[in-house]
Specification:
The protein is an alpha/beta fold. The chain is built from twelve helices and 15 strands. The N terminus is likely disordered.
């Protein structure tokens, strides 16, 4: 047994060293799933019980996008000498890593390969993971005048506190948070009662510590999951969470969308109901990959195509609109242009637009953002364990995400698409939506009441 364990450790170390030294990553898009060993008549062979139950509950079909990537294809790609990084079945791709860029041509010549695209090049400084933690202070400030503490306005603005009062606080709902890292979440005292089911790192699974990486996901999670009365209560304090890392803060490359797709499919397999992603992309280290407005059609970017399928699998995605409102880009960022998702802009506590909030519409004329929530001076927990404030649609998105989870708990017979439509209809600009506020500030209690009609 000791020998087996030693060999396993050595294999992991070798894999980690190889990952550090690799220079390129390529996305290999496949033509088909023609050599699949699976059948749509036997979905239990390739879909988890949780994924099947969700589809059955919402009367959703299992289709060819659910079939795994053909492993015979994967094996032939790996035989060229590359390392398999992730696989994406919904969009039928394999992402590989190598030091030899010439292998891309060899892979492109395989008869089942549709396209090969470089999606990552090793950054000059070689950084790939964090090696330090922020020291903890864990100073708790009580606010006896409010159960929600400093977060009171960001939930009351949308009347979601009424859902809580009616008993809908996220119980039984599973939320997947896809982000850049969750710094110190495992150590901050005020977060110890958050129901974390598990974590998964899609960027650097061999070595990185998801709790040592970026504090961005920490702030995002706190907006939803905090459950400390008179200190801070989030918008879904009794939900359960999967913490998933897809964002590589050390560079900006297309490959992060590959990781994100893998994270979404993992979330599907473990029974996630609602996803939050406070990530968006339009500029990259390789400027030739930058997006233009015409690309915001919900299908150009890989993660937008992936996001547009999420509701068809029975999950619901809430995502940030972006923070480009004051810059030259101004527009929403993928995956916020996707179909059948809730894209969230930012307002101040008084309901006025935050100037940085990205605007729509999509290139094909759909209303975006969908709704807005507090994203200017949002109440969050910081990496040192203290309360604080942060601004960005990164925080208006999770604030809305928790509200949506509570609404869905209250209306369990509705599908993901029906919940999205209900949220839009409850907005204070629903009659005249625009490209700045979208359908406006949703009234979640009104949405619940409308669901009974």
């Amino acid at each position: 047994m000791k020998k087996v364990l030693l060999l396993s450790v050595l294999a992991l170390l070798a894999s980690a060293v190889m990952a550090q030294q690799e220079t390129f990553k390529f996305r290999v898009t496949l033509k088909d799933k023609g050599e699949t060993t699976y059948s749509l008549k036997r979905p239990a062979k390739f879909l988890s019980k949780a994924a099947l139950e969700r589809r059955k509950r919402q009367d959703l079909p299992v289709d060819s996008t659910d079939l795994p990537v053909c492993q015979s294809y994967v094996q032939r790609i790996a035989a060229t000498g590359v390392r398999i990084v992730v696989q994406g079945k919904w969009n039928n791709f394999v992402t590989v890593a190598t030091n030899d860029s010439l292998l891309a041509g060899e892979i492109a010549a395989l008869p089942f390969v549709k396209e090969v695209e470089q999606v990552w090049k090793r950054p000059a400084d070689g950084r790939y993971k964090s090696d330090r933690r922020t020291p903890l202070e864990n100073r708790v400030l009580l606010h006896p005048d409010s159960l929600y503490g400093t977060a009171v306005t960001q939930i009351q603005l949308s009347n979601a506190h009424k859902l809580h009062e009616a008993g809908f606080r996220g119980q039984g709902m599973t939320i997947g948070v896809i982000d850049a890292g969750f710094h110190n979440v495992d150590s901050i005292l005020s977060m110890q009662n958050i129901r974390i089911l598990g974590t998964r790192d899609f960027v650097c699974p061999e070595e990185a510590d998801i709790y040592a990486e970026s504090d961005h996901g920490l702030g995002v999670l706190s907006c939803i999951g905090m459950n400390r009365p008179n200190e801070m209560v989030g918008t879904a304090p009794e939900a359960s969470f999967w913490l998933l890392r897809s964002e590589d803060e050390y560079s900006e490359n297309l490959v992060e969308q590959d990781y994100w797709c893998a994270a979404v499919e993992f979330a599907d397999s473990v029974g996630v109901d609602v996803l939050n992603t406070s990530l968006g992309y339009y500029e990259f280290d390789d400027k030739s990959k930058n997006y233009e407005f015409r690309h915001l059609d919900g299908h150009y970017a890989l993660m937008s195509r992936q996001a547009s399928l999420i509701a068809d699998k029975g999950m619901l995605l809430v995502c940030s609109a972006g923070n480009a409102g004051m810059g030259p880009w101004k527009k929403i960022t993928p995956p916020g242009d996707a179909d059948n998702v809730v894209t969230v802009g930012a307002v101040a506590r008084n309901g006025r637009l935050a100037p940085f909030s990205s605007i729509g519409n999509t290139a094909d004329g759909r209303v975006k953002p969908d709704v807005v929530a507090v994203g200017l001076a949002s109440s969050v927990v910081r990496a040192n364990g203290n309360q604080g404030y942060a601004s960005g649609t990164s925080f208006s998105s999770p604030i809305m995400c928790g509200m949506v989870a509570c609404l869905w708990q209250a209306c369990p017979k509705l599908t993901a698409k029906e919940i999205i439509e209900l949220v839009r209809r409850s907005g204070n600009r629903a009659e005249y939506p625009d490209n700045i506020y979208g359908y406006g500030i949703p009234d979640m209690w009104k949405a619940y009441e409308m669901s009974k009609e």
